[in-house]
Design a protein that fits this description.
Belongs to the glycosyltransferase 90 family. 29% of the residues lie in helices and 12% in strands. The chain has 603 residues and is of the alpha/beta class. It has a domain of 223 residues. The strands form five sheets. Strands 11-8-12-13-14 form a five-stranded parallel beta sheet. It has a three-stranded antiparallel beta sheet with strand order 2-1-3, with helices on both faces. A hairpin with a 7-residue loop joins β9 and β10. α3 packs antiparallel against α19. The relative contact order is 0.15. It binds 2-acetamido-2-deoxy-beta-D-glucopyranose (4 copies). The site of one 2-acetamido-2-deoxy-beta-D-glucopyranose (NAG) has 3 residues, from loops.
């Protein structure tokens, strides 16, 4: 058999893992025997483990080291109060000390604004609907009510994160997004050449965005049109015709464009190295139709205003803060939450030992996940696509690779009808239909096209080994609860969150592409042949030519489940969120101060 490797088509931000070369000597022009098959997943796991170990071992151990590291990364002194923050980290066993690149990147554009101008912009954007002001004054933090509404849970959550160290903070204000979606999309040339835009907001918010702000799009424009302008003028998304290529083709999806088309195994054997939080929609405009994200009804802000948000997709200028869902315990979103005592237990009452967890891929959720601007695209949104894929009962074949004999490193490839695979191990359903009026065939049509099941309590999830986590209206707020459990999390998202630099895909969770098509092969790797795969063994192709040796992939899955749990307990605690927010406050206090230099920490 001759394999053709099209490495020339290697995508820029993911690496081709479909086949791994064992020797550099083997190359495209060589006609020697193809290298032996190696399953890519063990390599991904190993690489992830090394990366994380390396990062953690390099964290600063003294204040002096932390200052040095800060200066070398960001080219300036740390903000005033850095020593107090350092003390906070030491008192609270904070393990991540130096990893704030993402926060610094969020804040960087605001350095070009004069402090008075920045303060004015906080005030102005704080008067918009769905933006609340949180104010630190005389060492006390408070939510200042929004003009139109009660203060949001997000603003209250943020201010409670600040509470612990409010007394050491100088006066300042934060404009907190009360929605889960990102809000600020500044056109490309305004970010690159801030001097080409208005620098002075004294004439008010409307003068800065060039029109009266209306809270929802009402057909005037949409998120995609605003997003597109954040892209490089040379990119695909800026070319009008390409961006109009409208209808999403499920087999013709995001990763398909990235994988070499002639590989013996197609995209279903292409494993994402990380989530799609760094996916380049500027370069792949057609992929936007697969995400509800681009159909949000809320008008985005087209000038550089500071808005603090729990998550953002690429292109957004929001400043990330931890989600209040992660911080404030609730029975819907918190693992181990005890309703009676309002405390959090290490082990949830519904947790079960690994051996008792079922080998199923579990997901439940509502049909949320995007607005309807423009309408008509709902069936393509991330959750709808997933539920349909996982309940497809057709006999269309999927190619799966699994160990045969079981629990060895000897792999075979077989074609198995997707309906049978879904029957074997997928347990995926909607529990609630919302916004179904936007479905092309209405509520009835949505019910007909998708599996619906009874709603479950959070604790029900822990019975299953695989928990899928998928974006809703914005980021999925269940992620920390899933991590805390002893089940393995498979996550697909287009958002970044405050912890994104701190967590390692393939170590703490399994990243999933936005097409989900490799999910069957993720299962096949870790759990081996399901009944329908076993049936296909007679027609399977041997991939491995060496003698089988023992290999326990279920134990590897268990290790991912435990690593996620350990991460949550070591790096994803409430006090870790406070540490992040503390450092953010110091940076922000300096940015809004008239004398920024005086607000720097001299060591
Ligand atoms: C804006 O700044 C860029 C570089 O920072 C410079 O090349 C350009 O001349 C400036 N434009 C104006 C109008 O000041
Ligand atoms: C979707 O894409 C596949 C593969 O590229 C192609 O065979 C199929 O015809 C497409 N379907 C539609 C409706 O365009
Ligand atoms: C699925 O694959 C099997 C085995 O290769 C084959 O016999 C069957 O015709 C295929 N089914 C479809 C619908 O292509
Ligand atoms: C595939 O490998 C198995 C186990 O090594 C062996 O028994 C079987 O004969 C092989 N099948 C083919 C078609 O080579």
């Amino acid at each position: 058999m001759i394999f053709i490797f099209l490495f020339l088509l290697r995508p820029t931000h993911t690496r081709q893992h479909a086949w791994q070369l064992t020797s550099n000597a083997y190359n495209f022009f060589s006609f020697s025997k193809p290298p032996p098959f190696q399953h890519p997943i063990p390599g991904l796991i190993e690489e992830a483990r090394n990366k994380f170990k390396n990062m953690m071992s390099k964290q600063s151990r003294t204040l002096g080291d932390a200052v040095k590291e800060y200066r070398s990364r960001y080219g300036r002194d740390p903000p005033k109060g850095f020593d107090k923050w350092w003390k906070f980290t030491q008192q609270n066993s904070i393990k991540v000390i130096d990893e704030y690149d993402s926060l610094m990147k969020d804040l960087e554009p605001f350095w070009v604004l004069p402090p008075a101008e920045l303060r004015r912009r906080i005030r102005q954007v704080g008067t918009l609907p769905s933006v609340d002001l949180v104010r630190v004054q005389d060492g006390k933090v408070d939510v200042v009510k929004g003009l139109y509404d009660e203060p949001s849970a997000r603003a209250i959550g943020f201010s409670s994160m600040v509470k612990k160290f409010e007394d050491v903070l100088p006066d300042m204000e934060f404009s907190i997004n009360s929605k889960s979606e990102g809000r600020v999309l500044v056109p490309w040339h305004f970010i690159k050449f801030p001097n080409s835009t208005r620098q002075d907001s004294t004439d008010g918010f409307a003068s800065m965005i060039g029109e009266e702000f209306i809270v929802d799009w009402r057909g005037r424009s949409n998120v995609w049109e605003a997003f597109r302008r954040t892209c490089d003028p040379q990119s695909q998304s800026r070319r009008l015709l390409n961006s109009l290529r409208a209808h999403f083709n499920e087999t013709d999806s995001v990763n398909h464009f990235e994988s070499a088309p002639n590989l013996a195994l197609d995209q279903s054997f292409h494993f994402a190295e990380s989530t799609n939080a760094n996916f380049d929609f500027c370069a792949h405009p057609w992929a936007k139709n697969a995400q509800g994200h681009f159909f949000s009804d809320w008008t985005t802000i087209s000038a550089l205003y500071p808005v603090f948000s729990p998550a953002k997709a690429p292109g957004y200028s929001d400043i990330l803060i931890p989600s209040h869902y992660y911080y404030s315990p609730t029975s819907r979103y918190t693992y181990g939450f005890d309703r009676l005592t309002f405390t959090i237990k290490d082990v949830d009452d519904h947790e079960v030992p690994w051996e008792q967890k079922s080998n199923t891929v579990f997901w439940r959720g509502a049909t949320t996940g995007g607005g309807s601007s423009p309408p008509g695209f709902l069936p393509q949104y991330q959750r709808h696509r997933f539920v349909r894929m996982a309940s497809d009962s057709s006999d269309i074949n999927r190619t799966v690779v699994f160990a045969n004999p079981p629990e060895t490193n000897h792999y075979v490839r077989a074609k198995v009808p997707v309906g049978a695979l879904n029957e074997d191990f997928m347990d995926v359903a909607f529990t609630k239909a919302v916004g179904c009026a936007n479905y092309p065939t209405g509520c009835e049509g949505m019910q007909r096209d998708h599996r619906f099941a009874e709603a479950v309590q959070l604790g029900e999830h822990w019975r299953h080994k695989y928990l899928v986590d998928i974006d809703g209206m914005g980021y999925s707020a269940r992620f920390f609860a899933f991590l805390a459990s002893e089940s393995a999390v498979i996550k697909s998202t287009v958002y970044r969150e405050f912890y994104s630099d701190w967590i390692q895909p393939w170590l703490h969770f399994i990243p999933l592409s936005t097409t989900y098509s490799e999910l069957y092969n993720i299962y096949a790797y870790f759990s081996g042949a399901s009944p329908s795969m076993q049936e296909a063994i007679p027609s399977a192709t041997n991939l491995t030519s060496t003698k089988p040796s023992r290999h326990n992939a279920d134990e590897e899955l268990h290790r991912i489940a435990r690593a996620g749990r350990n991460w949550k307990a070591a790096v994803g605690r409430r006090v870790d969120m406070e540490s992040y927010v503390y450092r953010l406050c110091l940076e922000w206090a300096r940015l809004v101060a008239d004398d920024r230099e005086a607000m720097s920490f001299k060591f």
